[in-house]
Every structure is written in C-alpha cells, then in structure tokens.
Amino acid sequence: xxxxxxxxxxxxxxxxxxxxxxxxxxxxxxxxxxxxxxxxxxxxxxxxxxxxxxxxxxxxxxxxxxxxxxxxxxxxxxxxxxxxxxxxxxxxxxxxxxxxxxxxxxxxxxxxxxxxxxxxxxxxxxxxxxxxxxxxxxxxxxxxxxxxxxxxxxxxxxxxxxxxxxxxxxxxxxxxxxxxxxxxxxxxxxxxxxxxxxxxxxxxxxxxxxxxxxxxxxxxxxxxxxxxxxxxxxxxxxxxxxxxxxxxxxxxxxxxxxxxxxxxxxxxxxxxxxxxxxxxxxxxxxxxxxxxxxxxxxxxxxxxxxxxxxxxxxxxxxxxxxxxxxxxxxxxxxxxxxxxxxxxxxxxxxxxxxxxxxx
Length: 359
What we know:
Oligomer: single chain
Strand order of the largest sheet: 1-2-3-7-8-11-10
C-alpha cells in the first residue's frame, strides 16, 4: 500500500485546486500536471486569467523551473479546450533580456498569468490523509497572489542564494530554457528534475512584507536578503497594486497585481469571490459534519493501490481495496464535497471542457 509524503501532498494539492476553482469560478485544467492549474471559463474575466496554484504549510510553496514557460504558451490552453485560435508566432512571445543583463522583457499577452499560494491552516498529519475522501478534513487559509514576473525573479533569487551562482548567469539560462521549452513544445520536466535546483521556494511571508512595505514581516536574515535582492532586479515591484480581498471563513487574499490588471482583481475577481464566499463557507461546514462518514470506509489488506482517488466510482471501489458502508446519497455527497461545490453544482471544468484530454 502506497503511503507517505508524496501521496499526502497530492491529496492537499488537488483539494486546494478544487477549492480555488470553486472560489474563483475557474476551470481545473485537465492537463494541470503540465499546464497551469486553473484557467478562466468564457465570459467571466477580461482579460482571461490563468493561475498556477501553490499550497502548503508554514507559508511556503514550491516553484518549478519546468513551469516558467507557462506565461508564453497560455493560448494553447484556450485553443485546445475552448476552440480559440492560438497565436503561433512564438518568436514574438518569447521573453528576452533588455536594458542590461538582469532586466527581462516579458511579452504582453491577452491572458493574465499569476501564481497563487494558499496556506493550509489545519494541523493534520500524514496519517490523517491516507484513505479516500479524507481530503474533506483539510482547511485553507490566507492566499498570496503574484504576477508571473514575480515568480520568475523569485525563482532566480532563490537559486542565487542556494548556489551562489551569479544572478546574471541564472537569469540568462532560465530565459534559454523557456525558449527551448516553447520551441520544442516540452517542459523537459524529467531531464531537469534530476537537478535539485529545479525547485525553489516561494515564501508567502516575503509577499506579505512587500505588500505592507514592512520588512519585519519576513523571516530574518534570509527573508530580508531575498526581498532586497528581488526588489533590486525586479524594480517594477514598487508599481504593483496592493489589493486585499476578503476570502471565506475570515481569510484574506493578498494580491500584488500588475497595474493593467487592477480592474481584473479589484473589481472582477472581487465580485466573483463575494458571490462564491458563502458557497465555500457552506461546503466547509458540510465537510466538517461529514467527517464521521470516514469511519464507514474500511481498507481490505493485500491490495496495492494508489491511495488517492478523489472521485472513485461506486463500481470500482472494491478494485481499490475499499469497502464503504454508506448509502448512495452519502457517497455522492462525499464526492461533491471533495470538489468544494454546493448542492446541485458540478465542477466548472465539467460544464465547459467537454474533451478532457492531455495536450
């Protein structure tokens, strides 16, 4: 039976995606393991919005180098999933160095791409998430949202402090790798993951310190060094609009928005969240009441399984080594609660994305 850290990060990661999808009224990308996790559904946001979601405890998430090309290839998602025409002029979309060796010019597209970190506020341990539907015990707290450029420079700065390599060389190499990923239509994930430097941390406390212009809010001494270096190589950080949105269950969503996206976040996204907040709070309460149903799930030993399957169909449960002594109504309720949807709702990707195939 597969247990342990990787399984439990998959459970929490998937749950955070369903949570954010419901809250923002965005579709979960069917190829989310290789593309941004969330994409806006038609006629909701102008410009369109894509989000790469990071989740975890301790105000810290993980940025992956293989995801840095997402901002260049966003049109592919909408072309494949919604039938739009993708812009194939790749050379015009590639980032390039400008005005010095550290200033990267990222092309302006029609889709806003942001990273969002969401902090877990439960005290669950690894063993608490090992059976199907156990994700209903997870609780989500404050969120920290930053534009694609912020994520790029954060990755570069983190690698600089971990390896002591010159920032100029790191930035140049990242630009080269993005271009390679775009031209070859591959993230080169498998070959790059061999290096421990393919993953770098994003610290929500750094975002909070920048948001409030209060360096004491980050962790000393490395947080101060990170924020200082980030501000140095990404001077546009001072131009980002500071936006706070009230989230569900007395949480806050801290947004560092590009000036051209102020209306997107301060008006459009805020309005959607105000509409969805009560739904999330209702589902949260319902999830708490349904935890008792987990006692009806019994594991049948001797079966090798992938411990997480958020939507196990009734006829295949025995295949996965589980016996669930619950009514059909209870089973359907648990499935719905996993997706953070209200009674009578289905996840937005099932409404709008008809052919869920990888690309």
